[in-house]
Write a structure and sequence with these properties.
heterodimer, A: alpha+beta, 5 helices, 19% helix, 23% strand, globular, B: 327 residues, alpha+beta, ten-stranded antiparallel sheet
């Protein structure tokens, strides 16, 4: 009995060590085995959301005032430890400069301000929930923000037919982990409100690994030789909404930005 | 006596036709099952059709012969193509002889029916209530206050503003093009992605109650359940800003989806809105299996049309003002 416990503990520690080495997310539940879907895959169905400040800035940042004075503290930026492994995004020198320009002009340029589709990986850590609808052939990621949606093709995989905001995602299972390979992006989405950006050469490989009944480990490797000197990684937990009445609400923000985008083109009363 | 018999025979015939004409269930067909045992509706579907919602004026029968139906389809396709003249500016965007815009070149729902509406039996939307008339008048007033179509973004049509299109409903109606849907099922959930503006409906099947009436959405809030092989979806909590043929925020839509063959889902819906109509009304259409995948329809992000037409309208006003000054 005691022996078995020891072996189990040692194995668990070894597995935990391995998982830690692979993910870099601390306090990983060792070798958690997720409940299965009826077709035997780890069940990722549910409504998920992050609990961090990555959407303000994926790099470490201090709290900061609102970019819009009248919003007071409601529009202020909460500080955050960052989600980028190694702390800093490995920008090419010119690209870092562009990020800083983006930041300076963020009220005009941030796609989120304009209610544009969020792209990947930003869709995953927006301060809005998203829902996974999982079938054998297709895994849907449906986001509350702007009704953004991503189809992950688990079979009948093809190349992106054209560039798009949300990219073209092909997925596969590696044991407990859903691996999603996404290409075919346009160069218009950002990573956050701090102006971190990419080009159309962006290639994102995401890993979704259940870590407990109500949490997932989300990791993404980001590659874009036009903007970064080397591939880099982000990781964070995703938390499941367990309220019984949890559901995605409509956030049809096009309506909310019309005056911002087109208000200057409104007909003026004739003089 | 004989009149009653005749009427009954007609009713029976109508019921028989209603089952067979649009969707022709394959005899002995049983829908495949998902791994968790739901009837399987998954895949890519289209509800494109030439059958109008309401019976056209001058048509008195509920059902065409196959020859008449073919002629009606041909006529409708020709009418659509004639909307734009080849070589004109309008034609650059909407050439309805093109593949994907000309629905007769792809899969579409063929029906012998003269209208999608099956109830009332005259194939027409029922009369409007006194409250409905008042509301329609108020709406027309509000639209007038917004000014001409090109005066502002808000005074334009919902589809040109990329707010919502005909596809997602509910009820899910065919649009001029891109009438495509992707259905994915997970235990306890049915998801329907509409190609137009990537609108997604997520329908929970767990018997949860409707949310607080304070919650109002463009697509309402849907709750679903299986009745045998039929997916029944009830939707309320609409915001009333996208009226379906005049409906209000008090609209209740009940949809029924039943797979009747490998390539067909029978789709019927009932509209109840006592604020607008004197009685409920019902329609029957179908979804035909089509080829995926569905590509991203980033409508708002690429909405140069709205921007440019507003710019154009302001320029024209400026020019007109300059002309006036000259005189």
């Amino acid at each position: 009995m005691r022996n078995r416990f020891l072996i189990a503990t040692t194995t668990a520690c070894a597995v935990a060590g391995l998982v830690l080495a692979m993910t870099g997310v601390a306090a990983q539940t060792p070798a958690y085995r997720a409940p299965r879907t009826p077709d035997g895959k780890p069940n990722l169905n549910g409504i998920w959301q992050t609990m961090n400040t990555a959407n303000w800035n994926i790099e470490a940042h201090s709290a900061a005032p609102s970019p819009v004075r009248d919003l007071g503290a409601t529009g202020a930026v909460p500080g955050g430890a960052g989600i980028v492994e190694g702390g800093e995004i490995p920008y090419l020198p010119a690209a870092r400069k562009k990020q800083q320009e983006n930041y300076a002009n963020r009220l005009k340029l941030d796609p989120e301000v304009n209610c544009y589709l969020p792209g990947v990986p930003r869709s995953m850590y927006l301060p809005y929930p998203f829902q996974i609808i999982q079938s054998a052939k297709h895994i849907m990621m449906v986001h509350e923000y702007a009704g953004a949606v991503r189809t992950i093709y688990m079979s009948e995989q093809t190349e992106a037919p054209a560039d798009s905001w949300m990219g073209w995602s092909n997925g596969r299972w590696e044991g407990e982990t859903l691996v999603v390979d996404t290409k075919g992006f346009n160069d218009l989405s950002w990573f956050d409100r701090a102006g971190n950006f990419h080009s159309e050469a962006l290639h994102v490989v995401e890993r979704f690994t259940p870590r407990s009944a109500e949490t997932l480990t989300y990791e993404a490797t980001i590659e874009d030789p036009k903007v970064f000197s080397k591939p880099w990684k982000i990781s964070m937990p995703l938390y499941k909404h367990v309220e019984r009445n949890a559901q995605l609400m409509e956030f049809r923000c096009v309506e909310f930005v019309e005056d911002l985008l087109y208000g200057h083109l409104r007909k003026q009363p004739s003089k | 006596m004989s009149r009653v018999v005749l009427r009954t025979a007609a009713a029976v015939a109508a019921v028989f036709l209603s089952v067979t004409i649009t969707t022709a269930q394959a005899p002995g067909y049983r829908a495949p099952r998902t791994p968790d045992g739901q009837p399987d509706l998954q895949g890519f579907w289209t509800n494109a059709t030439y059958t109008p919602l309401e019976r056209p004026d001058g048509v008195t029968k509920a059902v065409y012969t196959s020859e008449e139906a073919e002629a009606a389809i041909k006529q409708a396709a020709l009418r659509e193509r004639a909307q734009t003249e080849p070589g004109t500016t309008a034609d650059v965007h909407y050439d309805f002889s093109q593949f994907a815009l000309d629905r007769s070149q792809s899969t579409f729902v063929r029906s012998l029916r003269t209208s999608l509406i099956v109830d009332p039996p005259d194939g027409k939307i029922p009369p409007v209530t006194a409250e409905g008339k008042r509301r329609l008048a108020e709406r027309a007033e509000a639209a007038k206050r917004l000014g001409g179509r090109w005066d502002s973004a808000e005074s334009n049509q919902l589809d040109d503003r990329c707010l919502i299109m005909a596809g997602p409903g509910p009820p899910m109606m065919d649009a001029a093009y891109n009438s495509n849907y992707h259905i994915v099922q997970a235990p306890g959930q049915v998801m329907i992605l509409t190609e137009m503006i990537h609108d997604v409906r997520i329908i929970p099947l767990d018997g949860r109650p409707q949310p607080d009436p304070k919650i109002r959405q463009w697509m309402g809030v849907s709750r679903g359940r299986w009745e045998g092989d039929t997916l029944v979806v009830e939707t309320t909590n609409f915001n009333g800003k996208n009226p379906f043929r005049g409906s209000t925020e008090n609209l209740k839509v009940t949809e029924r989806l039943r797979r009747v063959s490998d390539d067909t889902i029978e789709y019927t819906f009932t509209i109840e809105d006592p604020s607008m109509w004197t009685r409920p009304w019902s329609a029957e259409s179908a979804m035909k299996k089509t080829v995926g995948p569905i590509f991203e329809h980033a409508c708002h992000e690429g909405n140069f049309g709205l921007y440019n037409t507003l710019v154009g309208a302001r320029l024209e006003e400026q020019r007109a003002a300059e002309e006036r000054k000259k005189k």
